[in-house]
Amino acid sequence: MLILGIESSCDETAAAVIEDGVRARSNIVASQVATHRPYGGVVPELASREHLRNIGPIVKEAIAQAGVELKDIDALAATQGPGLIGSLLVGICYAKSLALVFDRTLLGINHIEGHIYSTVFENPPVEYPALALVVSGGHTSLFLVPAPLEYRLIGRTRDDAAGEAYDKVAKLLGLGYPGGPILDRLAQTGDGRSFQFSIPRMSDGTGDFSFSGLKTAVVRCVKKGLISPTTTPDSPGPEIANLAASFQRTVVRTLRQRVEQAIDRYDPKTLIVAGGVACNSALRQEMKELGAERAVPVHLPSPIFTTDNAAMIAAAAYPRLLRGEATDWTFTAESTMSLQNLQVEDTRNEKRLRYRSS
Ligand code: KG4
Ligand code: ZN
């Protein structure tokens, strides 16, 4: 079965053709980083316009690289949410038009579920129950996946997503955008113990994450004059490298702690780590070590499938198509779409809370 996936939830216009759910015949991504770099973050209006410009050529390229024609595609999948509404609408409208013209099934896919499926191309089949940590610029969520397509949210960020913290701290230090790859590279030359940042503890005992305190701690370092933003981002110097390493060490330790608690509690057979921050060298290393210690196989995507892409969207559609899900022609973009209207589990007293949006 050939599925054409389209992803346009944020600042990447992407299209991919996937065969039988696990083989990427093509995976094309047009990044808008250069457009948004001068602003230090994504400007929604500019993102929508650029998606509109890119979507046609990107889909054409994905089809050509897969060595097929549009008529050979069996079904389509487009990101429905969460994301920027104007950006999502471009991909959805384009996918709806193709599905209508070629009379094919089209599924709207949750972007976070897409990230969870980004590991299927390079790993053995997932064994259930699984744990899935999705860490990106917009999300930091930990899910228990008891069975395929069933998700229970067991931890989520209360404030900033991990990638967002990377981006904000890099901006604060004058290092540029996006901050994740820059700080990751710098951290490799710094001493992670030179700045002492604490791991946040949730006062209500839940397994949630919080990264804004860490960002504020970095702000305090700047205000106290312990560190100065660089004016030479290409060679920021050893102090900033030390800060980058200390920041990264704290982010990674925070994520590890929550995942470790969840392993103890749920005894998963697979640990999936996905989302843009899963590119991070220290996080990958830490999760592999944790998996080895606890004898839990760790599924990580390689960098091309880690940041936003359409292969993961098509891959997530595959099991749904096999299950017979059909097009709902009225579906539209949902900027705060949650995964299956999930519920957050309060790990302290088992009380279950309604989860509204990420
Ligand atoms: O998944 P993604 O492409 O978009 C969202 O769905 O948000 O993730 C983008 C995020 C950005 O915040 C970026 O700084 C972060 O992923 N990122 C990294 C690394 N590469 C990308 N964060 C830490 N280390 C990296 N190597
Ligand atoms: Zn993403």
Task: Encode the helix/strand succession as letters.
Answer: EEEHHEHEHEEEHHHHEHEHHEE
Helicity, as a percent range: 25-40%
Span from first to last CA? 32 Å
Can you summarize the main beta sheet? 5 strands, mixed
Alpha plus pi helix count: 11
Overall SS class: alpha/beta
Bound molecules: 5'-O-[(R)-(carboxyoxy)(hydroxy)phosphoryl]adenosine, zinc ion
| Strand order in space, largest sheet | 3-2-1-4-5
Low-confidence regions: 341-358
Give average pLDDT, whole number.
92
Computed over alpha carbons, the radius of gyration is: 20 Å
Q: How many strands in all?
A: 12
If you had to describe this structure to a student in words, what would you say it looks like?
Helix content is 40%, strand content 18%. Helix 2 (44-66) runs parallel beside helix 3, helix 5 (162-172) packs parallel to helix 7 and helix 6 packs across helix 8 (238-266). The chain has helices at 33-36, 44-66, 85-102, 111-116, 162-172, 179-187, 212-223, 238-266, 281-294, 303-306, 311-322, and strands spanning 2-7, 12-19, 23-31, 75-81, 105-110, 130-135, 140-145, 152-156, 270-274, 298-299, 343-345, 352-354. Residues 341-358 have low confidence and may be disordered. By secondary structure, the protein is α/β, with parallel strands linked by helices. The longest helix has 29 residues, at 238-266. 50% of the residues are buried. The strands form 3 sheets. Strands 3-2-1-4-5 form a 5-stranded mixed β-sheet, with helices on both faces. Strands 8-7-6-9-10 form a 5-stranded mixed β-sheet. A two-stranded antiparallel sheet has the order 11-12. Bound molecules: 5'-O-[(R)-(carboxyoxy)(hydroxy)phosphoryl]adenosine (KG4) and zinc ion. Residues 111, 115, 136, 275, 308 line the site of zinc ion (ZN).
